[in-house]
Design brief:
By secondary structure, this protein is an alpha+beta fold. 49% of the residues lie in helices and 18% in strands. It is built from 7 helices and 5 strands, in the order αβαααββαββαα. It has a 5-stranded mixed beta sheet with strand order 1-2-3-4-5. α1 packs antiparallel against α7.
Length: 158
């Protein structure tokens, strides 16, 4: 594997860990890893050898997490795709949101970036032409976001 792929993989895993720990600390969610690499690590390794790219893409692009709300005022289930981006491209975010919406319907995207965290419903992102909203305090209070943003910046340099 090339170094750029390895670096991006590690940055993505850091973003996933930040998401999981931050939302866990909120105390209102059960966080279930749902990406294929969590379900069957052996499969994740073997998929790199598969020549049928359509199968590989379908498995690789399943949402990363399932959030189960424990809040009595918001009993719900949320599928969440987690991304790390140094720079957020509205074109790229819109494309990802369209693909996820087409495959899974109701799904959210969480983006960890050096300046902020972003979290929005894919249908809103598509409707807003790729614009993703900052993570709202209704999900995670600002002080907690700042704590994890500092951690992100400690572990990932630009």
């Amino acid at each position: 594997m090339n170094q750029n792929f390895d670096e991006n993989l590690i940055k993505g895993r850091i973003a996933e860990t930040i998401f999981e720990e931050m939302f866990s600390e909120v105390g209102e969610f059960i966080i279930l890893p749902a990406g294929y690499e969590f379900k069957t690590p052996e499969l994740a390794q073997e998929l790199l050898k598969i020549e049928r790219k359509d199968i590989l893409d379908n498995l690789r692009h399943s949402p990363d997490f399932i959030l189960l709300s424990e809040n009595p005022n918001r009993k719900d289930v949320f599928l969440v795709e987690v991304k790390y981006r140094t720079n957020i491209s509205t074109e790229e975010i819109k494309k990802i949101a369209e693909e996820l919406t087409n495959k899974y319907g109701t799904v959210y995207i969480f983006v960890a970036s050096h300046d902020n965290f972003y979290f929005d419903y894919c249908r809103n992102i598509v409707k807003n032409n790729g614009t993703i909203q900052p993570l709202a305090e209704v999900w995670v209070r600002k002080e907690l976001q700042q704590k994890y943003l500092r951690l992100l910046n400690e572990f990932i340099s630009r």
